[in-house]
Each structure stands twice: as structure tokens, then as C-alpha cells.
Amino acid sequence: MATPFVPRAVFPLLDSVPRSYYLGHHAAGLAKMRTMLSQIDLIIECRDYRVPLTSHNPLFEESLAGRERMVVYTKKDLGRKGGEEDNKREALLRKWHHPSPVLFSDQHATRDIRRVLEHIKTANTTRNSLTGSHLMVVGMPNVGKSSLLNALRRVGVGKGKAAKTGDQPGVTRTIARSGVKIYDAAEEGTDGGSVYLMDTPGVFVPYVPDADHMLKLALCGSVKDTIIPPFTLADYLLFQINLYGPKVYKEYHPPTNNVTELLEAIARKNGRLGKGGVPDMEASALWLIQRWRDGKLGHFVLDDVTEEAVEKKLSHDQVAPSSLNQARKAHKEVQRARAKTRKSSAA
Ligand SMILES: Nc1nc2c(ncn2[C@@H]2O[C@H](COP(=O)(O)OP(=O)(O)OP(=O)(O)O)[C@@H](O)[C@H]2O)c(=O)[nH]1
């Protein structure tokens, strides 16, 4: 009888995975957001539904404190299975962010977008009806900020796309002079002014605590695909898929923990062969990753959201170095300590 498949319980901690992706336009964007804060009535913070804990950026807490906030978990369609587990997770996230409202959205689901709009309007009735309300959408790179802005505009004022979107991070790099109208009070005949939403560039955390965080964020597209080798990322994806359900790739290979075997099978089936019929592993790795990002290899959440995990995250953020220089220093210290350990064990 064949032995049952056992997925890997842990993924090896890889020292080679970079732990920072804090770019010039992230820092510049954040600095600009800070200067604009006094004109902003409400901040919409976007986080990725698939990584609710990992896509939390303490920089926003630190830099944009003191403003009313709403948290929107984007790309719900890619993470939600539609069961009790999802309800439990969502309840926990609501508790975590209380008293800020928490919403979950799929950019194409008009019902979700309408719900976000309703919350915005409720907050808006208490504001200045002459100048209107000015909102800012913030979040990690590629989390779906511009898409949310476009969806709110579509549902709110029935107009087309105003912000450029794309499947790689860094499409929005600057902040426009004025916001985009997403609600017209005169047209609707309501109290409170119209609502304008300002798009901002995605801002990455200065320094992620470990390789696992970086791999999750890279899988969700917060990091450019050139930063982590596709083979490593595909291996991490396979590790995650196997925990969820290894049958999703059954048309290519039976359940396996060996990414080389799976990528070779994909290359053969998709005809991605190089000279002499050698499987193109990189092309297959990128294809596998993209297929998951498109929601074609299962819908699941990469973070394990429990009371304990939320507590841990909160206490880590409180003690973790948040400034970039401190973060770099801490990273170098860790590297030095590792090198020292390696040297002494080699001696
Ligand atoms: N499936 C799904 N995809 C989404 C959703 N929202 C956004 N996306 C996709 O995610 C990718 C990134 O979306 P953007 O709106 O450009 O993300 P951003 O946060 O503005 O990105 P930056 O410019 O890096 O700050 C695009 O390919 C979108 O089509 C969603 O609700 N569901």
C-alpha cells in the first residue's frame, strides 16, 4: 500500500532571503503623507486578506497616528474559502482593530465596495459640508490601493478608472495634488460634503523579522519578482499549498514536497523546454506563482490568525526597531552573530 503523503511542517529558514525592501520612493511617499496629514479626515489602510498579520506595517501606526482610520482587507476573493474558519478569523481581526471599522473586499464585488462606501458616508455626515472630506488610502506595495480607489469611484460616482494599477509593486510612486471624487453629496442630496480619495505609493516595512515574512509578502506581490529567486519562492509556495491541499496541482504531479519534480512536470506539460529538451525551471516557477496569484491554485490565507498570533504580532511591533537605521543596524548585528557562530563551529 502507498504511504500517505505528509506535507512539510516547517520551511527551512533561509539566510539568503533579503529582509528589507524599503525603497527611496517608499520613504519619500511616507514623508509626504506625514506632511499632508493635517488635511486628511480619514485614512483607509489596505492590507492583504491572505497575509492579515504579515501585511501589517508598523510604519503607518507610527507616522499616521492621530487620524481616524478604517482597515480594508483587500483581495478577499483570493483568500476566502467561505467557511466557519473565515468567519472566526474575520471576527478576530475586527477585535484586533477595534474601534476602527474593518471591512473585507474583492474589488469586483459591488456589494463589498458599497459596504466600504457606506462606512465612509457614515463618517462623512459629521464632517464639513463646504469643503467635503479628504481621505487617503495607504498600504503595502501592490496590496490593491489604486484598485480600491477605482472601485469606489465606479460604485460611488459611476465613473471609470482614475488610477493606474498593475500586477507588480510600485505602480503608484507619487501622491497626486488632489484626490479623486468617490462620492458626490450634491448629486445624492445628502448632508456632509463630497468625498475625495487620495492614492499613495505603497510603503514596505523597513525590515521584516524573518525569511518567512519576506517569502509571504513576495508571494503576495509586495516585492518585485526579481528580488527573491523564483525557484525559492515556488518552493515556499509548494510548502504552503501542501498544507492547504496538495490536490490543487494534481493535473501536473501527485502530492510532493520536491519542487524540482513538480516544476519539471509543469515544464513538460506546458512545453516549456529549453535546448535539448531541458525543462525551463525558472519559467515554470514563475508560472506556478502567477497561477496562485490568479486564484487558480486554491484560495487560502498564509498567516495563521489566532489570538496568540495577534498578541505576538502586537508585542513584536512594540519592541521591534521601527526606524530604518535601527533596523539596518539590527540586521547587521544578526549577520555578524551568525558569521561568528559559523566560524566557531567550523574551527
Ligand atoms: N483578485 C484580486 N485582485 C486584486 C484586487 N485588488 C487589486 N487586485 C490586483 O492586485 C494588483 C495590484 O493592484 P494595485 O491597485 O495596482 O495595487 P497598489 O496597492 O495600488 O500598488 P502600488 O502601486 O505598488 O502601491 C493588480 O493586479 C490588481 O488587479 C482584488 O480585490 N482581488
TrEMBL record:
| UniProt GO molecular function | GTP binding; GTPase activity
Record: residues binding GTP: N142, V143, G144, K145, S146, S147, G202
State the Gene Ontology BP annotations: mitochondrial translation
Q: Which UniProt keywords apply?
A: GTP-binding, Nucleotide-binding
Q: Name one GO cellular component term.
A: mitochondrion
CDD domains given for it? YlqF
- Boundaries of each G domain copy? 135-208
* Segments for region (Disordered): 313-347
Composition skew (Basic residues), residue ranges: 337-347
Recorded hits in Gene3D superfamilies, A to Z, give: 1.10.1580.10, P-loop containing nucleotide triphosphate hydrolases
Q: What is this protein called?
A: G domain-containing protein
